[in-house]
Amino acid sequence: MKNIRWGTLVAYIILAIFAIITIFPFVYMILGGLMTFQETTTIPPTLIPKHFQWGNFSKVFAQAPFARYFLNTFITASVTTIVSLFNALLGAFAMVNLRFKGKGVVQALLLSLLMVPGEAIIFTNYNTIARLGLLNTYVGLVLPFLTSVFYMYYLQSYFGSISPTIYKAAKINGASDWEYIWRILVPMSKGGLFTVGLLSFISGWNSFLWPLLVTNEDSMRLLNNGLTAFASDAGSETELQLAAATLTVLPILILYFIFRKQIIRGVVRNDLKG
Amino acid sequence: MKTNQKKAWIFLAPTLLFVTFFSIWPIIRAFIMSFQSGSLINLSWSGFSNYQYIFKDPEFWLAIKNTILYALISVPVALAISIMLAWLIFSKIKNKGLFETTFFMPYVTSTIAIGIVFRYIFNGEYGMLNFILRFLHLPAPNWIDDPAMSLTTIIIFGIWTSLAFNIVILMGALRNIDPNYYTIADMYGASGTEKFWRITMPQLVPTIAFLLTMNIIAAFKVYTSVYALFNGQAGVGNSATTAVFYIYNKFQIVGTPGVAMAATVILFIIIMFVTFLQRKMMKKIGGH
Questions:
Q1: B-chain residues within 8 Å CB-CB of A144?
Q2: Shared-domain flag, residues A117 and A25
Q3: Contacting A residues, span 20-39, partner chain B, CB-CB under 8 Å
Q4: Does the beta carbon of A105 lie under 8 angstroms from any beta carbon of chain B?
């Protein structure tokens, strides 16, 4: 018995150390964003500020258009999520329930596209967007991401687990495909759709390289790009950078804590099958 | 069922349309552009000169060297730590959800924002890390401003960020192992270590192979974390430049898209090769 207890104790200690390493940057970010400049740069480092400097946040909003970044990020992430989910829904339905010539080819094509690294096509996509005159526009920010082969594939595996007899029964009762999708398929796979939506929104919120390429006007920047620009401009004001970082991360962290189960389950399912 | 033909293509149309314009065409275009020189609006054929250029460019080799070193060190270390943590949570902890939620946080949060935080934690003078290292009487290097340290700094940050995904996927795989194996092992009086090496590890092989590939591919694309840690630079004096950094630099800053695309093609081939190896490996193992 003693051996087992020792083992558990050691396990707890190791896990606690790594848990602290994982959480510490978040804690430091939030606390550091509430410090004075002196407190962020003292030796030894300050961990808990003497007085919470809530004013740091209003300074951040005054120095850079963070409200605008928020709006831009929210719009981009939402539009990308809704449209790509819609497209993935229709595509996945066709691949699962309909029979047609060339299905195997389409499937093979989409599967091979899953392996293409985004970084390999992002620069030529930039070229396309630039030629269309869509730099510094919302359309330019979202256009290449309105379809996600990845999420379509995910939904396909989800829809595949719904018995095909339900589709046949709906057809016999005179439902059109469109009605089947909205009246039966969507309500039956709400959980899956919601998870895909969450994951898509989070990755949209955290996107960096694409918006960096296609925007150079301050008013069109997304949060992460605004944040890096702010970090260079407010180079010496450590506490403001940390406050700005907090603003960027906090909405997603809140979303994460509310829906942690769906998110984690979604990722596990997603990637083992992909 | 014949009536389905047209309908199916209509349902697939949006996906196929976007995929053609923003996934397939860009790949073809990248290949074409890698044989062209000049600025974006004024490209002309130049044969293999871009490839000759990058193969002679010491900066390109530094980028490839850094990227490979980053992948070869950060991926196995992160995977080993992840396996240890996942196994400890799985075998010793009752409240698994709490630890899973904690360890997964870095996956959902912006690398840029957290990278900025790490820049201060890593700060040579007043950073928290060096404070702890000095307290333990260990050497406290200048993580950010010393060019010799920049790759190490990126590797540490890379390990920190990649634990999240690994742990959660491994936990999923551990849960899928038939509990009867452990029950039988217990009946024969197997120790914890024996159970780990004889039951858990063999069952985890397909998952580990999958994570290895995913991590290596991600490591070859490392960019954002470098950008965040070094404030838009690739470390002091470009000491920590990576493949994607090189491509971005040649494409956007220097304005030689042909050179950038030649480097992209090379990166693309490397990643395809890794994926191909993984497929072969998985088939040999007889996994999924």
A1: 18, 22
A2: no
A3: 21-26, 28-29, 32
A4: no
Contacts of B26 in chain A (CB under 8 A): 120-121, 124-125, 128
- Best CA proximity match to B68, nearest among B270, B235, B260: B270
Do B30 and A121 count as a contact with CB atoms less than 8 A apart? yes
Please report the beta strands in chain B, taking only residues with DSSP state E, as ranges in sequence order: 36-37, 44-45
In the prediction, which pLDDT does A36 show? 85
The SS3 assignment for A99 reads: coil
Same-domain check for residues A81 and A49? no
Confidence of residue A272 (pLDDT cuts 50, 70, 90): very low
A98/B contact by beta carbon, under 8 A: yes
* Chain B contacts in chain A segment 115-154 (CB below 8 A): 115-121, 123-128, 130, 143-144, 146-147, 149, 152
pTM, to two decimals:
0.90
Domain of B270: which CATH number?
1.10.3720.10
Does residue A120 sit in the same domain as residue A27?
A: no
What's the burial of A236, exposed, middle or buried (CB within 10 Å: 0-12/13-18/19+)? exposed
| CB-CB contact of B156 with B78 (8 Å) | no
Residues of chain B with pLDDT under 70: 1-4, 286-288
Identify the pLDDT of residue A273: 41
Using alpha carbons, select from B207, B194, B198 the residue that is nearest to residue B167. B207
Domain of A7 in residue numbering reads as 2-55
Average pLDDT of span A18-33: 94
Q: Are residues A169 and A92 in the same domain?
A: yes
